[in-house]
Design goal:
20 strands; single chain; 379 residues; alpha/beta; Rossmann fold; 26% helix
Length: 379
């Protein structure tokens, strides 16, 4: 049976049989996954994707059914500023404010709402609004549960603005979902998509339930050819993420030429597989190890440590919500930058651009002088 590309439906596919030494992956809710997945690369539209099989869908659904465990934290969203009480979704809406001007009361859909990060930000940002949340089940935070209407049926409902925040990369049939959502959009309604950026976040391939691994060109190609207009793409709002804003186009869909990112090809992807295997083999030899940043990547590496060899694990992180994730799942020592004391550990930097500014801000030059390995350096 030939498999078709999830975006352009082409059968011109390259198969990858890689990560053979990788015994585990990680789910998007920070859990270890001991299941295999196969990778495909579309030669026509250059989309890197998972092979969709019945077993793969079944495994992903099992992950989503246990997703409520990922919502056991006090905060509704990741807090980016303690003083200003700003969350990630607040920053997103503020950055996009010139694209979010509406003259009348609007209906907003938070599709794949989770705990309600986007819904919470929308309550504060928009003056005249009615907000709906849609998901497999209601996990809305109790702080907003009475202010946001949770629905599990979208039939005969129309919206002026629809958000898919870290949802699009999970869709088994993105064309079907987006075309159905298009029917729920008023004329000239807007759609906002937020996804990982595969160009700057190469480790996205370790996330088992991420079905597609996207560049901005992949997104533009998809929405151009699915009846959307006025497409705007932002790669600088959050590091390693893409934000796309577009409008419903009621005119007949005209197929457009594909845009390509020449930096994403078969050889580059192959290199990324090899580099991940190299890092995994390297950390398994460490007796004591320190990670800078409690990201999904550092969680993944910790899950693959050899417990018989590695006796001490430390994480440097200033974000207390991320610290809660780590403590809740791994019981590992976490310290912030101001309390960090240099030792002989190699420091694995699981973030890329922020490191230098943090060192300068906190005068922690010892961190810079330590034996540090930037996990993004060669990617």
């Amino acid at each position: 049976m030939k498999f078709k590309c999830l975006h352009c439906k082409s059968e011109n596919i390259i198969y990858f049989n890689n990560l053979r030494n990788l015994k585990s992956k990680i789910s998007s809710n920070f859990k270890k996954v001991n299941k295999s997945s196969k990778f495909l690369f579309c030669k026509k539209c250059k989309l890197f994707q998972k092979k969709i099989t019945k077993s793969y869908i079944k495994n992903c659904i099992h992950i989503y059914k246990n997703y409520e465990k990922a919502f056991s934290f006090n905060e509704i969203d990741q807090k980016k500023s303690r003083k200003k009480n700003l969350f990630r979704s607040d920053i997103l809406l503020n950055k996009l404010k010139k694209h979010l001007k509406f003259k009348k009361k609007i209906k907003i859909l938070d599709y794949g709402s989770g705990k309600g990060a986007i819904s919470n930000a929308s309550l504060k940002f928009f003056k005249k609004k009615k907000i709906y949340a849609y998901d497999v089940e209601n996990n809305l935070d109790e702080k907003i549960n009475k202010k946001v209407l949770f629905i599990n049926n979208l039939e005969n409902k129309k919206f002026n603005l629809i958000f898919l925040s870290h949802v699009f990369e999970h869709l088994f049939d993105p064309t079907k979902v987006i075309q159905n959502l298009k029917k729920n959009m008023e004329d000239n309604a807007k759609l906002i998509i937020q996804v990982p950026n595969f160009k700057t976040s190469p480790y996205d391939i370790i996330v088992y339930d991420h079905v597609v691994h996207l560049t901005k060109e992949n997104l533009i190609n998809f929405f151009n050819n699915n009846g959307f207009k006025n497409i705007k793409v932002f790669e600088n709002i959050f590091e390693k993420e893409i934000i796309l804003v577009c409008e419903k186009n009621n005119s007949k869909i005209k197929k457009k030429k594909f845009l390509f990112n020449n930096k994403i090809n078969k050889n580059v992807i192959q290199k990324r597989f090899w580099y991940i295997e190299k890092i995994l083999n390297q950390i398994k030899r460490e007796k004591s190890i320190t990670f800078y940043g409690s990201s999904l990547l550092s969680n993944f590496l910790i899950l693959n440590l050899d417990k018989n060899k590695t006796k001490k694990v430390q994480i440097i992180d200033d974000n207390y919500l991320e610290q809660m994730k780590q403590i809740d799942r791994f019981k590992i020592k976490i310290c912030n930058l101001t309390r960090y004391k240099s030792n002989n550990d190699k420091i694995y930097l699981s973030i890329s651009k922020k490191i230098n500014s943090d060192i300068q801000k906190n005068n922690l030059y010892n961190l810079k002088k330590s034996k540090s390995i930037n996990l993004y350096y060669n990617l």
